[in-house]
Design brief:
Structural class: alpha+beta
Helix content: 55-70%
Strand content: 5-15%
Number of strands: 11
Strand order of the largest sheet: 4-5-6-7
Order of helices and strands: HHHHEEEHEEEEHEEEEHHHHHH
Distance between the termini: 62 Å
Largest sheet: 4 strands, antiparallel
Radius of gyration: 42 Å
Length: 480
């Protein structure tokens, strides 16, 4: 408990001070609700343990961040990415410490509280196992005590039998109007609410012990039959006489001895088992055995932090996959525009610029928030050309940055034709345009297959419900 309390105190002080002394010019990620208050603490942790320029980031993750956050400084992107992850871990750590402190405090209170009695389980619940720590005169030992279920008192048994007897007339009447007008079989149950019933009939030729009624040779006024019901419950039984009138049918360890003594010494009719204060001439005290759940909470918290750290990376890789699908879908559109503009008399660089200008215009006029990665990569290439880099080299780098076969092919095609001349470029672009349609169809087909796979589980669930709806009524209607 002390460890949790001190750790939580340090956590609170660190978070509060970091938030109060944060720089007003400090740039944090977009507002994330509660995380907004934890970003300063995350920044302090990162500035102490990591540096903005030498932050650990494997090559695969760094490449993924470059692809997702196009045109942004990769160092700032890495810093904010790890800042968000660190802040989430700090939030989880705070919740774990608070929960651990609460549970450990409860355990501490229970652990120091002496036990004077053990609750005996109610009848029918079976025996209960208790773990106790026996402490007396410098000795301490843990024992296991099995307390059997409570037995009913005689009064309780009588009350239970009387309760069942009062319901018995309604139970045995069956389809008859009442017990003075019996014209069909009686429902002589042999078990009602844990009460066993034994039936005897004074005239079995009229009513047998199963409740079957013989209506032959019955006088018009009927005949009275006495039924004896012997109700027994938990070894106690009482007899009742029920009179019915049958009418003719109508035309229609060292503390081992203490352990055994505790299990047998107390009356099983008592609600609680009293624990002795002295045993074998020694003063003894009982304490409950408390499981240290707070320790598991700490371990679970560490595991959650590790999983949270890894899940964030998985989200980035998923964004990279979405980027690649988006670029494959846009490839046909880019090739078509390049081919049409080139055939209209524009140069490759002029067509390139025209496509970028149109993309930026659409972004502004249509208020498109989601960027198109292929066009963003084209913007980078055009910026390189304006900065004085060779056109051919910039086109080749465009394909390599996109890291997709179709864009690599386009980049190499443009790079080679700029070096050798643009003769035959129209035919190559038209051939690539045809291939782009196939690429787009493959992406759409793949998405359809993925959607179909996702629908399998709901379909299987619906099939199971249909089977249950059809089969269960069929079974219920069958007579065995």
């Amino acid at each position: 408990m002390i460890v949790y309390g001190v750790s939580l105190g340090i956590w609170i002080v660190t978070v509060v001070l970091s938030y109060l002394i944060k720089s007003p010019n400090q740039v944090f990620p977009l507002d994330k609700g509660v995380l907004n208050y934890l970003y300063p603490a995350g920044r302090v942790f990162m500035d102490i343990c990591l540096t903005k320029t030498k932050m650990y980031c494997n090559r695969k993750l760094e490449q993924a961040l470059r692809e997702v956050y196009v045109l942004e400084d990769i160092e700032d992107v890495k810093y904010q990415y790890f800042l968000e992850k660190t802040s989430k871990i700090i939030a989880v750590l705070g919740m774990v410490l608070l929960l651990g402190l609460t549970v450990s405090f409860t355990e501490h209170v229970q652990e120091g509280k002496a036990v004077t009695s053990l609750e005996r389980p109610q009848p029918g619940m079976g025996e209960s196992q208790y773990q106790l720590i026996v402490q007396g005169e410098g000795r301490q030992e843990k024992i296991d005590v099995a307390i059997g279920e409570r037995e009913y008192t005689k009064e309780e048994k009588q009350e239970k039998i009387q309760e069942v007897f009062e319901k018995l007339e309604e139970i045995i009447i069956g389809k008859n109007q009442d017990l003075m007008n019996v014209t069909s079989n009686l429902n002589l149950e042999t078990q009602v609410e844990d009460v066993t019933i034994l039936w005897e009939s004074e005239q079995e030729e009229l009513i047998d012990i199963s409740g079957e009624v013989n209506l032959e040779n019955i006088y018009e006024k009927g005949e009275e039959v006495n039924l004896k019901a012997i109700l027994s419950f938990d070894g106690y039984e009482e007899e009742y006489l029920i009179t019915v009138r049958v009418l003719p049918p109508k035309e229609n360890n060292s503390y081992a001895s203490l352990q055994k003594e505790l299990e047998k010494q107390n009356s099983k009719t008592q609600q609680q088992v009293k624990l002795p204060k002295r045993w074998e001439g020694r003063d003894i005290t009982f304490y409950p055995v408390i499981e240290k759940i707070s320790l598991y909470i700490g371990g679970a918290g560490v595991l959650i932090c590790l999983l949270l750290f890894l899940i964030k990376d998985k989200e980035i890789y998923k964004q990279v996959e979405q980027r690649e699908n988006q670029m494959l879908l846009d490839y046909g559109e880019i090739i078509s525009k390049l081919s049409l503009l080139y055939q209209a008399g524009m140069t490759i660089t002029g067509a390139w610029e025209k496509i970028i200008v149109e993309y930026e215009k659409n972004m502004l006029s249509w208020k498109i928030i989601k960027k198109r990665y292929a066009y963003e990569e084209m913007k980078i290439t055009w910026q390189h050309i304006k900065d004085g880099r060779a056109v051919a080299k910039s086109m080749g780098e465009f394909g390599r940055r996109c890291r997709l076969n179709c864009y690599l092919k386009l980049g190499n095609l443009l790079e080679q034709n700029i070096h050798k001349g643009t003769k035959g470029l129209v035919g190559l672009l038209e051939a690539e345009r045809v291939d782009a349609k196939e690429i787009r169809m493959d992406v759409i087909r793949k998405r359809g297959e993925e959607a179909g796979i996702k629908l399998i589980f709901p379909m299987v669930g619906m099939l199971g419900i249909c089977i249950i709806v059809i089969i269960i009524p069929s079974f219920l209607s069958m007579k065995f």
